[in-house]
Each structure stands twice: as structure tokens, then as C-alpha cells.
Amino acid sequence: MLDKSQLKPLQTSAKTATEIAKFDQLAEEWRKDDGRFKHISEFNRCRVNAIVAQLAQHFALDLELPVPLSGLRILDIGCGAGLVCEGLARLGADVTGIDGSAVNIEVARRNATSQSLSIRYQHCLAEQLATEEVERFDVVLNTEVIEHVDNQQLLTQTCAALLDDDGLLVMATINRTIKSFIIAILGAEYIMRMLPIGTHDWRWFISPGQITDWLRQQGIKSQRAIGVKYNPLTKTWRTSKDISVNYMLFASRRP
Length: 255
Fold this sequence. Notes:
255 residues; 8 helices; 36% helix; disordered N terminus; Rossmann fold; alpha/beta; 22% strand; methyltransferase; single chain
């Protein structure tokens, strides 16, 4: 068992600390394919497939190769218990995962070791890494994180600072619409119980337009946005043109 007394806290805002504590309690549960959050595991697989497809297009990769992401340096900001990191590492990527939750990082490290996956995990916030890191990354991922932080513009700027000139930035979050309140909060948390009640706060949801504006200030242009949609009848996730709830934004410094 993990000895939480050995984990050092980070210097964070009150909101960030509250959000980290919330996800500390769920670190193990997210990983269970047959657990109460099994739909989230399926959601993750859908996202990883979409990310890999976009990486193949951006970097002209051959997905028929055994390890098509070989040589790509990928940073996953807010990596949680490591599900996205693992999927990309299996395809050959050089993956670094960071998270504000020491519990998440410990769970992620343990699972990577058990699967013989070489993934660098670090307990820190993106802003801390940006002040220490000399290297920039080919790919920066920030998935389902920005809706949990208080300074969303700073996080966006930090993602941009860590991205290599020819790199690809992937930001995934939830749009702030009436539809997202009905589906992502009332539906997912209160009715279907796909997530614990209180996981999200609609006031912290953010539109792709707002993220695009902040990225433009950093010299980064949005390339495309795609939605990720759940079908309650088939209990499956798929990508969609509908970005009114869950969406993924792909951006780059390329003209």
C-alpha cells in the first residue's frame, strides 16, 4: 500500500489543492476496466486513438509500423494514473507524465513498472516544469485538466512554452454550454453516475474559442477541434463534429 505520509505536497492555490485532493481518492479506481468508472476507460481509449491519428497526420507517421511513435518526445500534463501515457508509450513514444497528485504519480509509476513500460513520471505542476525544463517537447498533452485549475490562461501559456517549434499541442476539456451542463454534470454525475458528484464545476468549463485566443497570443494556431461523444444505448464513445460538450483542440506553430 502507498504510504501517503511520505508524499510531499506542492505549493498550490486553494482551488488547485482541492481538486488534487479530490483526484487523490480516485487514483486506483480510474484504472479498473470493470470498476464503477469503466466508461471513462473506454473514453480514454477513444481519445488516445484520436490523438494518435492526429499525430500521424502532423508528423507524417506510418501507423502500420510496430512502434509508429518512436522518437516523439511527449509530455502529458496532468497525467493522472498514467492511462494516456501508457497507450502512447506502447506505440514507441518517449513519454513524460507530470501530475499535481503524488498519489496519482505513485500509482502511475507502479503500473508502468508492472507492464515493463519506460515512462518518466514527475510529481510537479506544469509551471514548475517550465521553469526547470531546458528541453521542449514534440507533443504536449493537456487533457481534462484545464477545467480543474483556477488560472486557465497561465496553464495555456505554460503548455505553449513547453512545445517545440514544430510540435503539436493537444488540449481536451469540456465546452461551457447549456448542453454541457445537462450532459456532463446532470447526466454523467447525477443520473448515470459515470463520475462522482462534484467532479466538475460548470463555471470552470471553457470554450475552444477562449483557448484559441490565448494560444494565438503565444504564436500558436488552432488546427482543428473534434468532439468526443457518448452513446448511452451502445455504451460506446466516438469522435464527432459536435464540440458542444467534450472536445479536443489540436494546435501548432506551423502556418
